[in-house]
Amino acid sequence: EKMTESGDYLYAAQVAADYLNDGEAAVEYQYQGALAAMQEGDYKTAMSVFPTESDYKDSASLAQECTYLYYTAEYKENGASEEIARAFCFLGDFRDSEEMFKTVSYEYGMTCADKGDYAAAAAMFKNAGSYRGAENELNRARYELGKSLMGPDPASARSVFALLSTYSDSAEFTDALGWASF
Fold it and tell me: What is the pTM of this model?
């Protein structure tokens, strides 16, 4: 109780669970600690601390809210990343998470393509769907991936070019790699 009076709910939850075998108190203290972290703007701590083992009060919705707020802030501060795309994908239809998933996927796909990581770029552009012409970027990333595989893995390169069929000169590469891949 002294710990909770001083606002150290998370330590109180640990003590209640480890030494008092009081699961109910531990969950309540954990919940109160997560609420305090949320009120302080520490969304990362709050989203990971809200009790998830049970349907305790409104933990699930508050954890979802904190996840959204944390990753929205991360995106604004640091730009797109695979982790941020995954978070918005996980959130599903919460607020504008579906649109954020497409936006972040597209932007991170562009970053991957600029770095020459065409496999990752293709995956991100596929996630982006039709957002800002991502279909064209997907084809371009796959094409570049195919070209990068021509030397080390001609069979995979042929598969990539066959998938692209009518994009640019993919059909020519498919034909040229026909027997080289076997």
Answer: 0.84
